């Protein structure tokens, strides 16, 4: 299967660079098992889900992971913390006019907090901070909003680029689980009152989510690694939901990747699992957990577009996307949403 099979034309004006005034105000395009789509509002999710269904949500929290600084010589650098390995060591992306070498010292913020390049880990730099990383991020960091926003982070992003149910103890992502940004407390309470259950999993989203696929044959693509945790309790709820004939609805591709990774790691059994995942879901993949998916509209030729094409099929997805473009849906992280039904369930 070729990368070009997942291409579509997207006018720049349909990229949502700022959130709507309220979280639940977005539109919802429902794509059913027959490949038919219907225009809805996001709050219609209340009538589209049934009592006894289970929402699976990612409770990670986005770090203020982007740091601006300078070299000892004064040249500008930008450090993006991808993964904290301990209190002082992190794997990071570094932007600079010249690639910093092992032993190079960089300085963050007006207080010139020193960070030292200790080596490389794959395409990342191993960076040692002279002060606790979270303290430095809290003082000098900016939210790493997506590159396609083409702007700096603003005050509104501090609130709206986080989910309302994020767990402060799970401050480790460099991108939001954006499908969850559509939920507010009121909608979650209404879903609960209807008898729709929810459970939380954790996948710390890495910057690799924005990287393009660079191979013409998608099967040659190597996915970036992300850490996830799916508890035994969450998997027990998933098993119980399926046993009584209800649906498991993943909220976002990260919740999908976390639960499907757990099932894959356990040989198809629905059991808890913690670890690094490089799962790559594309057409032909057989889902073991997810019956329905709430997700945003994704970039052309992206692994996320391939994932949703595996749940429905490529033609259904691209037809729905063409309709979304014609109907001026808003795309990407702050954009509108889809509810996609698994055609194999």
Automatic annotation (TrEMBL):
- This one is known as S-adenosylmethionine:tRNA ribosyltransferase-isomerase
Can you name a GO cellular component term? cytoplasm
Q: For this UniProt entry, which residues form the secretion signal? A: none
Q: Where in the cell is it found?
A: Cytoplasm
> What role is this protein assigned?
Transfers and isomerizes the ribose moiety from AdoMet to the 7-aminomethyl group of 7-deazaguanine (preQ1-tRNA) to give epoxyqueuosine (oQ-tRNA).
Q: How does it assemble?
A: Monomer.
Query: Is Phosphoprotein tagged as a keyword?
Result: no
Question: Which family would the database say this protein is a member of?
Answer: Belongs to the QueA family.
GO molecular function of the protein, one example? Answer: S-adenosylmethionine:tRNA ribosyltransferase-isomerase activity
Copy the pathway line from the protein's UniProt record.
Answer: tRNA modification; tRNA-queuosine biosynthesis
Q: Which domain of life is it from?
A: Bacteria
The record ties this protein, via SUPFAM superfamilies, to: QueA-like (SSF111337)
Which regions span the lipid bilayer? Answer: none
Say which species the protein is native to.
Acinetobacter tianfuensis
> What's its EC?
2.4.99.17
The record's listing under Pfam families reads: Queuosine_synth (PF02547)
Its GO biological process annotations read: tRNA queuosine(34) biosynthetic process
Q: Which UniProt keywords apply?
A: Cytoplasm, Glycosyltransferase, Isomerase, Queuosine biosynthesis, S-adenosyl-L-methionine, Transferase
InterPro entries membership = QueA, QueA_dom1, QueA_dom2, QueA_sf
């Amino acid at each position: 299967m070729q990368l070009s099979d997942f291409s579509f034309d997207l006018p720049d004006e349909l990229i949502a660079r700022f959130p709507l005034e309220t979280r639940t105000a977005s539109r919802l395009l429902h794509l059913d098992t027959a490949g038919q789509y219907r225009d809805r509002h996001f709050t219609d999710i209340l009538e589209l889900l049934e009592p006894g269904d289970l929402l699976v949500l990612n409770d990670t929290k986005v770090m203020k992971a982007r740091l601006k600084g300078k070299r000892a010589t004064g040249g500008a650098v930008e450090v993006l913390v991808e993964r904290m390995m301990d209190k002082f060591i992190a794997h990071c992306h570094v932007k600079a006019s010249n690639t910093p070498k092992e032993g190079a010292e960089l300085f963050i913020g007006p207080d010139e907090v020193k960070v030292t390049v200790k080596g490389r880990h794959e395409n990342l730099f191993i960076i040692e901070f002279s002060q606790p990383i979270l303290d430095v991020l809290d003082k000098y960091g900016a939210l790493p909003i997506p590159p396609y926003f083409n702007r700096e982070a603003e005050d509104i992003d501090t609130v709206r680029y986080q989910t309302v149910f994020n767990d402060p103890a799970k401050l480790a992502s460099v991108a939001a689980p954006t499908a969850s940004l559509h939920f507010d407390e009121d909608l979650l309470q209404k879903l609960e009152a209807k008898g729709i259950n929810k459970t939380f999993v954790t996948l710390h989203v890495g910057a690799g989510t924005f990287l393009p696929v660079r191979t013409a044959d998608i099967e040659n693509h190597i996915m970036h690694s992300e850490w996830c945790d799916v508890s035994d309790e969450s998997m027990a709820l998933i098993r119980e939901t399926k046993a009584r004939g209800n649906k498991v609805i993943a909220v976002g591709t990260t919740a999908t990747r976390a639960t499907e990774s757990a099932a894959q790691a356990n040989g198809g059994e629905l059991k808890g699992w913690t670890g690094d995942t490089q799962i790559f879901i594309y057409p032909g993949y057989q889902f073991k957990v997810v019956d329905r998916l709430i997700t945003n509209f994704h970039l052309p030729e992206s692994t996320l577009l391939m994932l949703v094409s595996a749940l429905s099929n490529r033609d259904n997805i691209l037809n729905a996307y063409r309709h979304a473009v014609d109907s001026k849906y808003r795309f990407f992280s702050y954009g509108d949403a889809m509810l996609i039904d698994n055609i194999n369930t």
